[in-house]
Every structure is written in C-alpha cells, then in structure tokens.
Design goal:
Length: about 80
C-alpha cells in the first residue's frame, strides 16, 4: 500500500522525536531517497509548516517545534478515531 504525504511527514517527525535528527537518519527512518528528503519534504516541514527546526546547539541536527509535537498528537488522535470507527 502506498503511503500518503501525511504518513511520510509523520515518519519524519517520529524519527526526529526519537533522536534520529540528522538528514541521513531521517531519510532512512522515513524510507525516502536523499533527493526526496532534501528537495520535497524538508522544505515542507521545516520552512512552510514549521514542524521542525535546525538545532544549532546539537551540531545542526533537527528538533521538533511545538507545532510539530501538536501535529503528531492530532495525527495520532485522528488515526485512532478512524481505526475504531
């Protein structure tokens, strides 16, 4: 079954939340090519949606924003509602 954009974004956010905060780690966890990650998804979640930010104190790795944490919470809630309907 093909994953949708939201599923891929959630996989990326979950990777960052679990401490996998470098581009390569996020790429592997989300099952993306580097090209997909760098050109399509990182600009979306970092610059447009502001779900992650670069953590300068952590060697340039990524960190979830409050908005990113809220996105994950709402996504999980909606997914569980659909699952039990």
């Amino acid at each position: 079954m093909r994953r949708g954009r939201f599923d891929i974004i959630v996989d990326m956010l979950e990777a960052v939340k679990s401490g996998k905060n470098k581009k390569t780690q996020i790429m592997y966890e989300a099952g993306l090519s580097f090209k997909q990650l760098d050109r399509e998804y990182l600009p979306l979640v970092e610059k447009k949606a502001k779900l992650i930010i670069v953590d300068e104190n952590n060697g340039g790795g990524f960190q979830l924003t409050d908005r990113g944490k809220e996105f994950l919470k709402i996504y999980r809630s909606l997914k569980s509602m659909i699952r039990y309907s």
